[in-house]
Fold this protein.
Amino acid sequence: MQKTVLIAGLGLIGGSMAKAIKAHTDVRVLGYDISEKVLSDARYLGVIDDIAREEDFAQVDLVLVALYPVPTVEFLLKSIPHFRAGCIAVDLCGVKGYVCERVSPVAQQHGVAFIGGHPMAGREFSGFEYARDDLYEGASMILVPTDSTTTPALEQAQAFFRTLGFGKIVCTTAAQHDDMIAYTSQLAHVVSSAYIKSPEALRHDGYSAGSYKDLTRVARLNEQMWTELFLRNAGPLVREIDEIMRHLQEYRDAIASGQEDTLRQLLRDGRERKERIG
C-alpha cells in the first residue's frame, strides 16, 4: 500500500522536502499551505500529488510541518485530533523546546508519535520558488524524540530521512538542540545582520572579497521567521550574544591600547581553536 505524506508549509524547507520525496521515493505527497498560488504551482509542477483537505488527515502516515514556530504549534494542536493513531508527525522549525513541550502531550493523548525535527540545510532566500530537490544532500537531520515517540516511529523517521539524501541523523534533546543552534546558527544571523549596518557597508564596492561575502551572506534573511526563532530561544541566544560581546571587548581593548602581545595571543588562540575543531 502506498504511503502518504502531508507537508504543511511549502516554502523553502517544505517545498524542498516535497521535491526530495518525489525525487527519491514513490510516496504520495499532499500539500497544505496558506497560499493558493503556491499550492497550485506545486501541484502543476508535480511537487505534490494533491492539495490536502482536513478530511484527508486521517489517511496520512507521516506529517511534516515546515512553518514558523507559532504557526507550527497552532497547526499541530488543531490537527493532531484528526490524525490516525500511529501517525508520525515531525516539525521542521529551528527551535525545539518551544514546540516540543506544547505538542508532545497532545500527541501522546491521541496516539500520534511526535518527533521534533530540524534539517540543517537552507539558503539565504526563502519561498517555494527557491526549493530544491537536492537541498538536503549530505546534510544533517536533527531529531528530538518526545514522550509521545515510540521506538519504531523513531526508526521509521530515521530511515525515511536517509532516503531523502541526509548524510547524518542526530538524535538529541530539545534543550541540547536549542543551546547548540543558538551558537551555530542564530548567533551567526545576529552577527551578520549587525555587521552589515556599518556606514562603511554603503561604500564597500571594490574593497570587499570572500571574507565580506561570507560574513554578510545570511544578513539577507527573512525577518519574520528569524524574529520568531530568536524570541522562542531567547535564553540560549542571549548567552551566546553575551559571550561574543565579551570576546569582542578583549580584541577592542587590546587594539585600542596598542597591546601587541595580547592581540597576537588572542588571534593565536582563535586560530588554534579553529584548527582543533575544524
